């Protein structure tokens, strides 16, 4: 992959070749990608922890199911908030757009200042990170499919189905990957 292609705002979908348990059948929303590396969050791994256990003031405002999500294996003690910003309006206070309707919210901002200008919110513990050239090498090795994100992807009602749903909406042979069994022996 040429470094001229930036992945910010796109999705990485784990291929069946990626067997690392941290990323098996994950969908990663890329938050930043540049010459120094890349940063993203896994958007399809809800935890069995309500947001109010770590950020109680945000619990009433998060998108159902109201759970904290495991954003990746790096810095699990940190939190990132992803929001949907409707329309082409300016960024609400405390929000930085990533691309299109998707943005990051500063979780130190009081929720009442932010929530009137957003349409969805998910909070992620940790993130996925790659050093310079590392992600490009993984893509070249066949570990990730790179596809376009839809603004609803991080807020899906059924995150456990997102891997298959994202693949199913692709064109051509990639759509068939949605039916790939979790264990090829089951084929």
Walk me through this protein's architecture.
With 187 residues, the chain is mainly β. The protein has a single domain (10-176), classed as 3-Layer(aba) Sandwich (VC0467-like), CATH 3.40.1740. It is 10% helix and 35% strand. It contains 3 helices and 10 strands. Strands 1, 2, 3, 4, 5, 6, 7, 8, 9 and 10 form a 10-stranded mixed β-sheet that branches. It is globular. The two termini are 31 Å apart.
Write the topology of this structure.
Elements: E1 10-14, E2 27-34, E3 37-42, E4 46-50, E5 67-70, E6 74-84, E7 95-99, E8 102-105, H1 111-114, E9 120-131, H2 134-140, E10 144-148, H3 162-168
Parallel strand pairs: 5-9
Antiparallel strand pairs: 1-2, 1-10, 2-3, 3-9, 4-5, 6-8, 6-9, 7-8
Notable features of this structure?
187 residues; mainly beta; VC0467-like; 10-stranded mixed β-sheet; 3 helices; globular
- Count of DSSP helices? 3
Low-pLDDT runs of 5+ residues are: none
Strand content: 25-35%
User: How many domains, as an integer?
Assistant: 1
* Oligomeric state as shown: single chain
Helix content: under 10%
Quickly name the level 1 CATH class: Alpha Beta
Q: State Rg.
A: 16 Å
- Total DSSP E strands: 10
Shape: globular
The CATH H-level superfamily is VC0467-like
Structural class, judged by helices and strands?
Answer: mainly beta
CATH topology: VC0467-like
